[in-house]
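Notes to self, ATPase:
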Amino acid sequence: MPFTDIMGQAAAKQILQNSLRSGTLGHAYLFTGPAGSGQMKTALTLAQAIFCTVLQDDACGECLECRKVEHGNHPDLTILSPDGSSIKIDQIRELQRVFSYRAKGSHPKVYIIDEADKMTVQAANSLLKFLEEPPVPAVAILIASNSQSLLPTILSRTQRIPFAPLSPDLMLQTLSDEGVPAPLARCAVSLSSGIEGCRELAAQNWFAEMRNLVLQLAKESLGKKGSAVATAGQKLFKTELGEHMDTLFSMFHLWFKDMLYFLHLKHENIVFIDQLDFISNYAGSRSVSRWVSYMEYAAESKKKLRFNVNAQLCLEQFLIRLEE
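result:
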């Protein structure tokens, strides 16, 4: 795909295309910024542009070389991603073995390391010399949302290409054009920093179900005592929704923030905009400080999950605090 198909990121695209045009392509790039901002798509487009036999500074998308990248079977492109929770030294050694052979064409070989900030220390040290002196002409593209986790020596050997979060309005418009219902789109955009992440969330059946459940629990916690805990037991932990507790607490956080937006007359920022009638009736039933404390409860619950506190216990405690 051409660079014009990548949303936003004008600065990143300009740097890369100028380098292609002038024949001054770097040997190693570090794409940084929030996950889902288009880094992988840009990396693949850059690989296509390097291999492309038609255009000098872009990917035509039609030639044989471009189509091989598109179909994931280009012999001179290698993509590494974490094996489990990290990128291990054996993966880097295998990359070095593959790169001991010359490229099939006259172009340099390309390797992309996704989530490069998840390399083990051994893997990162193994990559260092290879990054500087590959056995064949090569272009490295490292993708990392947390570049501070990388070794300083790797940072110093790569050219940083910053990626900015896409504007929420642009992502909302894109999702709307693709037929995603507005309530789901607003929620997805608030929970993801990139359009790919938004699309992925909105396409999951559980995401719409979770949104409906959060609304039900939020409303019950304002009303009948104890009913929210019972509902959660029935609808959450006996279904696949129980696997997405992190998203549940994130949605609760958005719901409480919507109450504050209403109280501060910032209606355009409300995520659960289809619930405006309910929000208008209940926003004034709690003080600003109470809604803020509810947001803090949601954030604390997410933190507990990360420390492996039992998810059901975590939710029950959260709902009981809301009903107190």
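- The chain is about 55% helix and 10% strand.
- The first helix runs from residue 10 to 22.
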